[in-house]
Design brief:
The complex is a heterodimer of chains A (158) and B (1070). Chain A has helices at 25-40, 83-101, 106-111, 113-123, 134-157, and strands at 2-9, 14-19, 49-51, 61-68, 71-78, 124-125, 128-129. With 158 residues, chain A is α+β, with helices and mostly antiparallel strands. The longest helix of chain A is centred in the C-terminal third of the chain and has 24 residues, at 134-157. With 1070 residues, chain B is of the alpha+beta class. Chain B contains 48 helices and 16 strands. In chain B, strands 11, 12, 13, 14, 15 and 16 form a 6-stranded antiparallel sheet that branches. In chain B, a hairpin with a 4-residue loop joins strand 4 (854-862) and strand 5. In chain B, 37% of the residues are buried. Classes of the chains: A alpha+beta (158), B alpha+beta (1070). Chain A: It is found in: Cytoplasmic vesicle membrane; Golgi apparatus. Chain A: This is AP complex subunit sigma. Chain A: It is a peripheral membrane protein. Chain A: InterPro entries: AP_complex_ssu (IPR016635), AP_mu_sigma_su (IPR022775), APS3 (IPR027155), Clathrin_sm-chain_CS (IPR000804), Longin-like_dom_sf (IPR011012). Chain A: Keywords: Cytoplasmic vesicle, Golgi apparatus, Membrane, Protein transport, Transport.
């Protein structure tokens, strides 16, 4: 199970937060802060796994993260997930974002937050990995986007 | 900045409200508002200006603009500003908008709300509507939201619709439906019990995506339920994996030219669970595992991910040497990889494997040493974990030293707690290097672990000191060492020491400082007194110090000093501390009392605590005679209070004022009784001694240093020491020496040699000679005890060689021997039940499995408060068996005092019953969820003939934990109203032709689940039952048109739910 997906930038500003288990609002913010604190002090040449965040679940849970330019992508998962598998899942997610936004950057995540959420919904559903095939994810998202456009045309005609 | 954002947020509800109030006002373009909001917020962070946000005064109206605002609200929530006012609008949007707005609405809902949020109720209807929609995307959205936030009690509403989606024509819908059902299974397993065969269909779905999704469910099912229920699927899983590995899937599923890697991992994990401890199943997968290992050659992350899963599977299932060899090579690939992620996983794999194959750690010792000095603390931590697993009596000091080094640098609280616990465990397990080392290590643990460590570490340590070991001289020395080291610690600055450590110090000094000759108690009192001057010290610690002082004031000098200190606290506000001080004064005056209450060596003698407070009986009976109400324990009072809160449906009678006065009397009564008891016994309520009683209670804590454990361990070390020269590492160590002689000039080599020395000290004694085998020792211990009971038997009579060969392979259920019938198993065995169990209801004696000479049978006896599993081990061969040992293990069931119930009933030569075991399971509520398994294993040992084992699992059905609850209809009515948790469901009655369906159903339930039928009125029937723990559950059944409506109520939250599941099963099986 994936417990939470956090994306924040190099200064710890959250860019996308998705919890699959309920935490109170202030707890969520604390988790984000502490995760940032843990992740940000690590160099780029150390491993991408972190264990035993006392906030989310203790020893059974680990943080798996990747650092891209200005953004940290952090997945908090339990022991039933494969570390390397999740690491590649983050890669798939980012590549998909890149395909959908054409050279994705931090600003895309800010101004199209809803779209990022839709893409994420096609990758992970309720904490379970739904789809790992990039083409399939993109196809699903595009299907929805087409609908958006057609509706837009429809409204503008009115 | 925050106040401005708050202003923005306060402007938002205005906008949202105006949406309702002013339709058709001037339209404003809302598209760029999220942008402007973001811009304003970011500007504010940089400039911190207090300008008012430019929000348009008249708000938007259309759902489209609403959608924009909702995205803004999501953004604000993400930044941590609560936007709860928008929740209801999110639900509205999901309800009313077009598809696009719905999408935002659903997204907002799933981000804002959680499982127990009240507003969720408003969403149910919308979700139901959308699940039935013809629009693909609407269905998808509904399924997503259902899987994300739906709570247990809303599942029945959507379940049928989601179930239908399993047969939808679009694969994406089917896949999402499967995942949604998986989520339901996680939340409420009982509610989706009936669709298990549909999961099987999903597994066979023509679309690989759906099949992948269904694997989530199977992984969970196999993990939670018994793997044996799913063994038949092994073949399918193996075939699927074979096809995937063989590249039979469409190319679309490839990721970096690896076919469906995530699917492969999932399958491997399932196979590991299935093949665990099962040779036959494991044999089916060897081939495909080999294939996976071979295929995973491309140097990419994802292939390593598969490899890692493959390794884990190979080491989990029944071992095959070829595969193990290959796997060991693969682990080498991981450990030696320059990529740090792989190294980490390699270490993890080694940690996992090393218990089975310590040689593997030897192979990679140099890498492990390097990892110890790695710059990444995570790698270091993992290495220490690995070392922890390979610790033995010879390398313990080096490993502990490394761990302490790490601890001194680490600041993470979680790591500290975890690692300190491990160090303490090691130190207690192997205190061998010397007592000084042990005390020093414990001191280090206390000062590093501080006040965050587990409280049982100091408790265990004190217990060890107090109880001592076999030799008195050693005990004395250990204690003396402790006293010495603490005295010298007290001389230095004590302000930095953690409270727990100070408590330990004061206890030890109080208890054992008399051992040190020439040490005046007055001296110790003075030093302890200095501790009290520190303001940072807590009251609890002060209590400990005072308690230590009261033990020390034997001489008048010490007494004088102690009283001076204590006097300060006699008027202290903290009651515990005050009591301690007053006690000290009192005990100081009365020497006789002191020696009686606090004898020297007091900790060694078991304190006898009269927990029933029987000495107060006279007092209580006096009070009762004077009209006081009887004492009620707190939980009972609590229960009564909560019952009072429930609406009273009966007319008020005269009883009310009486019960009220009784209540107040009890409340007034109990504290006096309690305080009296504490002052009389001087035991239960005073904190320093509380620690003592704590120590006494610590039974069941794993401690290898006990009275029994100490000696054998020691022998083992001596043996290992003797073997050391021949240990595997020795040659390479010599090599290292000679190498270093050749190249003394090179510093690198010196470093290398240092590492090698470190390696030699770390991996000493890790050869194959001491592979620990716990099971074996247990078996031997038991066999010792049985053989004592055996009258001296001569040499074993001739046992044919053929029997030996068949026995040695004889694990798992074997064919039932024909001789069994002749022996009249059924008739004879029950008579061997002990007298206490004879009259009770029991199941038939079933033979579980048998070998050539041993047979294992069991029956269940339903005792009033427990389920007793009587296990018979009988000799069915003609020859006599000399020794038999038996091991019973049970993971899910509690087996209390197994050894005491283990009784050798009879043992005769050539007699067929060897002995019987009675295992008493205390059944708990949990048992209803997961069917527990008890495994029993019998050995027989012949001289020179090796051993054979019988092995079988017994799982008592869940219904065994139910007992009928005899009630009258009136009692039932009262209870029914007072129970708060209920579940209702309609069950299909399969047999329509029956005349009296209700009768039949009730009888079936009665027989299967041990229910008591209270009454049958027309088409309604009421039944009652209780768990063995005495917790009741009431059932109400009603038949109409081939359906049986069952309504269950109980004071315990989950009980109705699981009982319903069992009812369902019972009705179906009928």
């Amino acid at each position: 199970m994936i417990k939470a997906i956090l994306i924040f930038n190099n200064h710890g500003k959250p860019r996308l937060i998705r919890f699959y288990q309920y935490f109170a609002e202030d707890m969520q913010q604390q988790i984000i802060r502490e995760t940032f604190h843990l992740v940000s002090k690590r160099d780029d040449n150390v491993c991408n796994f972190l264990e035993g965040g006392s906030l989310i679940g203790g020893s059974d849970y680990k943080l798996i993260y990747r650092h891209y330019a200005t953004l940290y992508f952090v997945f908090c998962v339990d022991s039933s997930e494969s570390e390397l598998g999740i690491l590649d899942l983050i890669q798939v997610f980012v590549e998909t974002l890149d395909k959908c936004f054409e050279n994705v950057c931090e600003l895309d995540l800010i101004f199209h937050m809803d779209k990022v959420h839709y893409i994420l919904q096609e990758v992970v559903m309720g904490g379970m990995v739904l789809e790992t095939n990039m083409n399939e994810i993109v196809a699903q998202v595009e299907l929805q986007n087409r609908m958006e456009k057609s509706e837009f045309v429809f409204i503008s005609r009115m | 900045m925050s106040d401005v954002v708050e202003k923005t947020l306060t402007a938002l509800p205005g906008l949202l409200l105006s949406l309702d109030s002013q339709p058709g006002a001037a339209k404003l373009c809302a598209t760029s508002r999220l942008g402007s909001l973001v811009r304003s917020i970011t500007e504010l962070t940089s400039k911190n200006v207090g300008e008012e946000m430019a929000e348009p005064p008249a708000g938007p109206r259309s759902p489209k603009q609403m959608k924009e605002i909702m995205v803004r609200a999501i953004y604000c929530e993400m930044l941590g500003y609560e936007a709860s006012f928008s929740y209801i609008h999110a639900i509205k949007l999901a309800q009313q908008g077009s598809v696009l707005e719905k999408r935002v609405g659903y997204l907002a809902v799933s981000l804002f709300l959680h499982e127990s949020h009240d507003l969720l109720l408003l969403l149910v209807n919308t979700v139901l509507k959308d699940l039935q929609s013809t629009n693909l995307i609407e269905v998808c959205m509904a399924l997503t939201v259902v899987s994300q936030i739906f709570p247990k009690d809303m599942i029945p509403a959507v379940l049928p619709l989601v179930e239908d989606k399993l047969t939808h024509s679009k694969e994406i819908i089917r896949r999402k439906a499967v995942l949604a059902l998986y989520k339901f299974y996680l939340i409420a397993p009982n509610q989706v019990q009936h669709i298990h065969d549909k999961f099987r269909k999903a597994l066979c779905d023509k679309d690989p995506g759906v099949m992948t999704a269904s694997l989530h469910i199977y992984l969970k099912l196999i993990k939670v339920c018994l793997a044996s229920n799913y063994k038949d699927l092994t073949d399918s899983f193996v075939t699927i994996l074979k096809q995937v590995v063989g590249g039979k899937l469409p190319v679309d599923f490839n990721y970096h030219s690896v076919p469906a890697p995530w699917l492969q991992m999932q399958l491997l994990r399932i196979l590991a669970l299935l093949g665990k401890e099962d040779q036959r199943t494991s044999e089916m997968m060897y081939e495909v595992l080999d294939e996976s290992l071979r295929r995973a050659e491309i140097n990419h992350n994802i292939t390593y991910a598969i490899l890692y899963e493959c390794l884990k599977t190979i080491y989990t299932i029944h071992p095959k040497s070829e595969l193990l060899e290959k796997a060991a090579k693969c682990i080498g690939k991981f450990v030696l990889s320059p990529k740090i992620n792989l190294k980490y996983l390699g270490l993890k794999a080694l940690t996992y494997v090393v218990q089975q194959d310590p040689n593997l750690a030897l192979q990679h010792q140099m890498t492990i040493i390097e990892c110890l000095d790695h710059s990444d603390p995570i790698i270091k931590r993992e290495t220490l974990e690995l070392l922890y697993r390979i610790t033995n009596g010879q390398n313990v000091s080096v490993i502990v030293e490394k761990m302490l080094d790490f601890l001194r640098l680490s600041k993470d609280e979680y790591t500290t707690i975890d690692l300190v616990g491990k160090v303490a465990e090691l130190a207690e397990k192997y205190p061998f290097p010397c007592s000084v080392w042990f005390i020093q290590t414990m001191n280090a643990i206390f000062s590093i672990g501080g006040d965050v460590m587990q409280p049982d570490i100091p408790n265990n340590f004190l217990r060890l000191l107090a109880e001592g070991f076999d030799s008195d001289e050693e005990d004395r020395q250990l204690r003396l060492l402790a006293v010495d080291s603490y005295l010298s610690l007290l001389e230095c600055d004590t302000s930095g020491l953690p409270q727990r450590f100070l408590q330990v110090i004061s206890w030890v000094l109080g208890e054992f400082s008399f051992l040190k000759e020439g040490l005046e108690p007055a001296d110790v009192v003075e030093r302890l007194g200095k501790l009290l001057d520190d303001d940072a010290i807590t009251t609890e610690t002060r209590c400990w110090v005072l308690a230590a002082m009261s033990k020390l004031c034997g001489s008048s000098d010490a007494l004088c000093k102690a009283e001076k200190v204590a006097h300060k606290y006699t008027s202290c506000l903290d009651t515990a501390l005050r009591q301690q001080a007053v006690e000290l004064e009192l005990l100081g005056r009365d020497v006789d009392l002191r020696t009686r209450v606090l004898p020297q060596h007091g900790a060694r003698n078991q304190l006898e605590v009269d927990s029933s407070l029987s000495f107060l009986d006279g007092f209580v009976s006096d009070a009762l005679a004077r009209g006081a109400a009887p004492y009620k324990p707190p939980h009972q009072r609590q229960e009564e209070l909560s019952q009072e809160k429930i609406l009273n449906f009966e007319p008020y009678g005269l009883s009310l004022p009486v019960s009220l006065s009784a209540c107040s009397l009890t409340d007034r009564q109990s504290p006096t009784a309690l305080s009296l008891s504490s002052s009389l016994s001087g035991n239960s309520a005073d904190p320093p001694l509380k620690a003592g009683s704590n120590l006494l209670k610590l039974e069941g804590v794993k401690r290898v240093w006990g009275k029994q454990g100490y000696l054998p361990e020691k022998q083992a070390t001596e043996e290992a020491l003797a073997q050391e020269p021949s240990s595997i590492f020795a040659p390479s160590h010599q090599q290292a020496c000679s190498e270093s002689q050749q190249t003394t000039f090179s510093t690198i080599v010196e470093q290398d040699q240092e590492k090698r020395q470190l390696a030699s000290s770390l991996f000493v004694g890790l050869g194959s000679q001491n592979a620990p085998c716990l099971v074996r020792t247990v078996a031997q211990n038991l066999s010792d005890s049985t053989s004592e009971a055996v009258p001296a038997v001569g040499n074993t009579e001739v046992v044919e060689a053929s029997e030996v060969s068949s026995l040695s392979g004889g694990s798992g259920p074997l064919a039932q021997p024909s001789s069994q019938v002749e022996r009249g198993l059924e008739s004879d065995l029950p008579s061997r039940l002990p007298a206490t169990l004879v009259g009770l209801l029991r199941s038939d004696v079933e033979e579980l499995c048998s070998g050539e000479s041993l047979s294992l049978s069991a029956c269940k006896v339903f005792d009033a408060d427990a389920l007793v599993l009587a296990i018979f081990l009988s000799n069915i061969s003609d020859s006599s068996i000399q020794e038999v040992s038996c091991l019973i293990s049970s993971e899910q069931l509690k087996v209390p005092e197994m050894c005491s119930t283990f009784s050798v009933l009879s043992f005769y030569l050539n007699e067929f019953v060897l002995f019987s075991l009675f295992v008493c399971f205390s059944l708990c509520l949990n048992h209803l969820y997961s069917e527990g398994v008890a495994q029993c294993q019998g050995w027989e040992e012949h001289l020179n003939l090796g051993e054979a084992s019988l092995y079988h699992s017994v799982s008592p059905p869940a219904s065994c934990s139910c007992r009928p609850l005899p009630l009258t209809t009136e009692e039932y009515g009262k209870m029914w109203l007072s129970f708060s948790h209920d579940v209702k469901q309609n069950l299909m009655l399969l047999k329509h032709e029956e005349e009296d369906q209700l009768e039949a159903a009730l009888t079936a339930l009665k027989e299967k689940l041990c229910l008591h039928i209270v009454d049958v009125i027309g088409a309604e029937g009421i039944m009652a039952c209780q768990l063995v723990s005495g917790r009741p559950c009431l059932l109400h059944c009603h038949t109409h048109g081939g359906m049986l409506a069952i309504w269950l109520r109980s004071p315990i939250a989950d009980l109705p739910d699981c009982l319903l599941y069992h009812c369902q099963k019972a009705i179906q099986e009928r």
